Structure to design on (453 residues):
DNA sequence: TCTGGGGTCCTAGGACCC
DNA sequence: TCTGGGGTCCTAGGACCC
């Protein structure tokens, strides 16, 4: 625990809505709602004028319209938000090299790394006041709320206390005086589910939490969560401000205004999303081994299915093919409201592409091949790896899209017009054999067959 | 016609390995 | 005719955050 209030948290007030009001004077002083404007959209940000009508973040746009019909409903201009955010983050980095952005509109700044003469309250308060003035300058008039404290937790709580356009400093040693009367949900990581569990245990405020032993908390909410809850409940927070965080996954998802029932359309949408994921991976110089799809059904039940390759990929065709294959195993009767594709298990290096997928990288969303999905399983060791090609005497050549130990799943792209039933073959089925030998490193790899391009 | 999109982290079970 | 123990990887689901 620091003895000085050297952690600063800055939060731009009603950020997206404020940028819109800045750029469009006719919106100033009026309710502005930024978010999804479709039938299933939700509110990202409501201006303070709109909040007076009860419009809140994460509320459905439908409800927001009902509460505040005269508001301006905007879908958002992310380039403007990003460039405005960049200006603020640059300003923060000029103040201290140790800046941790949490999102476009929020960041921690470690003033202990700022090279200040001291970290007394007056000094850090002055820095915060100057920052707030400079934020207004570089953003064309946006306001920020700032909190200062001895930890991330306290700084963040502080910045929330006097919104908008406020500054709150929590003097070292007074943390628990501030926290005790507050509801437990002030603690990061305590959402609706944890709040309910704690409520049943008679814990409502931080003062209540202070009296519960760590063992008891672990029993109530689990090991990791229980430990951190016990620490934060006593205002103990040693989490450092970290400027560089590694990306762990890249994903794209979409909710559709009407539920999808056409599997071919779903496959085409997944393929398009896979291209988008691929582009973003490549733009960041990343590739990943695990491809995951997310499917939300009409009744909001949400399923994830994933498969892991033996080496990382950033290839759109590969990601798309795996995604479509994963969808094949799911029952989507009743309709699908959301589809998504993600890649995780990221590495910032890309193994040589043994199968030449990079040569042709364009499964057209509109011309998806019909496919027959065949599962085979056996207790003998799997000799095929994802990405390999296999050949079947009558079904032709297929592509291994997933494998487990003792199980191999092969997707055959055939001339059939409709997907056939799922069939099982033993893995030692004599007709199922590697189509071509595994190339050795450095060997010349033949081109992918036409249909894989 | 309630309920976005982009993430992170944790848990739990099964397979596998030594 | 009983039956390990620890560690890692993978998958699926869930909670949470902005």
């Amino acid at each position: 625990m620091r003895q000085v209030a050297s952690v600063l948290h800055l939060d731009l007030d009603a950020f997206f809505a404020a940028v819109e009001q800045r750029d469009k004077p006719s919106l100033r002083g009026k309710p502005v709602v930024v978010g999804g404007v479709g039938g299933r959209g939700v509110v990202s940000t409501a201006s303070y004028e709109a909040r007076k009508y009860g419009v809140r973040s994460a509320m459905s746009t439908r409800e927001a319209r009902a509460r505040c019909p005269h508001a301006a409903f905007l879908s958002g201009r992310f380039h403007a938000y990003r460039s405005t955010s960049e200006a603020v983050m640059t300003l923060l980095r000029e103040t201290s090299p140790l800046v941790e952005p949490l999102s476009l509109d929020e960041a921690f700044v470690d003033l202990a790394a700022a090279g200040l003469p001291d970290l007394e309250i007056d000094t850090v308060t002055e820095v915060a006041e100057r920052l707030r003035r400079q934020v207004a300058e570089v953003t064309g008039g946006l306001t920020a709320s700032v909190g200062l404290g001895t930890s991330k937790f306290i700084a963040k709580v502080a910045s929330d206390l006097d919104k908008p356009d406020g500054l709150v400093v929590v003097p070292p040693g007074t943390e628990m005086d501030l926290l005790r009367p507050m509801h437990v949900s002030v603690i990061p990581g305590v959402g609706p589910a944890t709040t309910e569990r704690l409520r049943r245990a008679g814990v409502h405020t931080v003062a209540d939490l202070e009296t519960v032993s760590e063992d008891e908390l672990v029993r109530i909410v689990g090991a990791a969560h229980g430990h951190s809850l016990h620490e934060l409940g006593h205002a103990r927070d040693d989490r450092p401000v970290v400027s560089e965080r590694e990306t762990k996954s890249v994903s794209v998802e979409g909710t559709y205004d009407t539920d999808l029932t056409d599997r071919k359309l779903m496959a085409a949408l997944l393929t398009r999303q896979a291209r988008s994921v691929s582009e973003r991976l490549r733009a960041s110089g990343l590739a990943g081994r695990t491809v995951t799809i997310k499917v939300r059904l009409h009744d909001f039940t949400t399923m994830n299915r994933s498969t892991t390759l033996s080496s990382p990929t950033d290839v759109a065709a590969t990601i798309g093919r795996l995604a479509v294959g994963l969808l094949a195993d799911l029952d989507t009767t009743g309709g699908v409201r959301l589809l998504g594709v993600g890649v995780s298990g990221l590495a910032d290096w890309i193994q040589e592409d043994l199968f030449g997928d990079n040569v042709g990288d364009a499964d057209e969303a509109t011309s998806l091949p019909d496919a027959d999905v065949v599962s085979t399983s056996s207790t003998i060791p799997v000799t095929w790896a994802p990405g390999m090609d296999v050949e079947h005497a009558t079904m032709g050549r297929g592509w291994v899209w997933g494998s487990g130990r003792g199980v191999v799943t092969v997707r055959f792209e055939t001339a059939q017009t409709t997907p056939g039933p799922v069939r099982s073959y033993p893995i030692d089925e004599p007709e199922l054999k590697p189509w071509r030998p595994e190339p050795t490193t450095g060997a010349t790899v033949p081109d992918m067959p036409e249909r894989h391009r």
Observations:
- Residues 44, 57-58, 102-106, 188-194, 225, 290, 292, 302-308, 404 of chain A lie near DNA strand C (CB under 10 Å from a C1').
- Confidence is low (pLDDT under 50) at residues 351-382, 401-408, 413-430, 437-453 of chain A.
